[in-house]
Amino acid sequence: MPFLPPALRRYVGDKLASDPLLRNPDFRRYWLSSVLNSFGAQISALAVPLCSALLLHATPGQMGIIAACQALPYALFALPAGVWLDRRRKLPILLASRLLQGALLASIPLGWWLGMLSMHWLYAVTFLFATCGVLSGAAEQIFLNLLVGRQQLIEAQSKFATTDSISRLVAPGLAGLLVQWLTAPFAILFDAASFFISAWNLRKTQLAEPAPVPSDKHPLRDIASGFAFIWHEPLLRTLAWGAALWHFFLFGYSALLILLATRELGMTAGMLGAAQMLGGLGVFLSAVLVKRLNRRYGAGKTFLVGTCGTVAGFALMPAIPASLFGNPVYSAAAFGLVVFMYDCAVMLFFIPFMALRMKATPDAYTGRVISTMRFLTGVTGPAGALAAGYLGDHYGIRTGMACVAAGGIVLAAALVMSRPLRSVAPDQP
Predict the structure, then answer these.
(1) What keywords would UniProt list here (predicted)?
(2) Which of 15, 97, 179, 424 could pair with 132 as two cysteines, CB 3.0-4.6 Å apart?
(3) CATH number of the domain residue 50 falls in
(4) How much is the pTM?
């Protein structure tokens, strides 16, 4: 770090020396790749829906199909992917997936430039991109476990949440400006570049990944054993049905959110970017809260806090009027505040969820359990997105989102009453 001033260089050096995770160069490299992907993802998370809603004039039903295409690969491929991952090294899979995801994103501005971009093009790109995510997402979780160990997963995830919050503070505002200056398709080029750079950085990882244990079992037997293991473990069983139903409502909410913002509240791309920046503050707050909540109450109760917070976001968002106090700017501000609360709660849901899942799973079952649970969420996600799109088409966007909120409230109540989650003890220091 010769380019840093001496005082700052000493501070960074002391910080690296005092943190066992940051002393690990492979973790730092993996963390940087995560930051790059997070930054790019914040751009495409705004730009891709705006491509559909503003440039291609998508209906609520078509937005539901886009959201369904994000989840459908989990239903189709997550189970065989889990068996396959248990029999393969993870780093080559991560590298190939990120390169292909970058190429898929780059095809969107290419299609727009050629005058060929359509909703069907976006359906295909979304489906293939998510298919890569089925493999890379599960591989990332296993690879991170190899890097840091089970006991440091919460600490590692909280670091990711911190940098993700910084991405959320910077990237959405940049995305809003890029969409207005360059149009949404070309803003996606920045996301594509982040995947290419991430793969280039990650290929330098020196971790000696152990060779998978050879298996002579038929893949269907391995898939069945993954289901059986989850079914007979009360905590995993509760996490499985809870996350599956939560994703049903999440994808319904996501399918209609951009349409609510642009057509019901009249928000511009720049205003949406500013609102998503508030979401970054929410993610930053979650990075602070998750360790404290986990230390005091345990990961199970922290997971429940996140569940209830996201459901509150489901309920509050469709209640925002088009002109709050007679001024649409106040409505946009209310939208941003709900995004702030919701994004904080999402991280309080996911970080404990992943830690609980890894804690309850032995190494031999890791790939199968992760992919089986991703399959369960993949089965429900498309149904939730299509149902919300149908309701939005036939009864209005706000009505569709209100139905999502009602279902989420019932789910949150059922999870709060679940003994396996409430009985998880805090980790000992």
Answers:
(1) Cell membrane, Membrane, Transmembrane, Transmembrane helix
(2) 97
(3) 1.20.1250.20
(4) 0.69
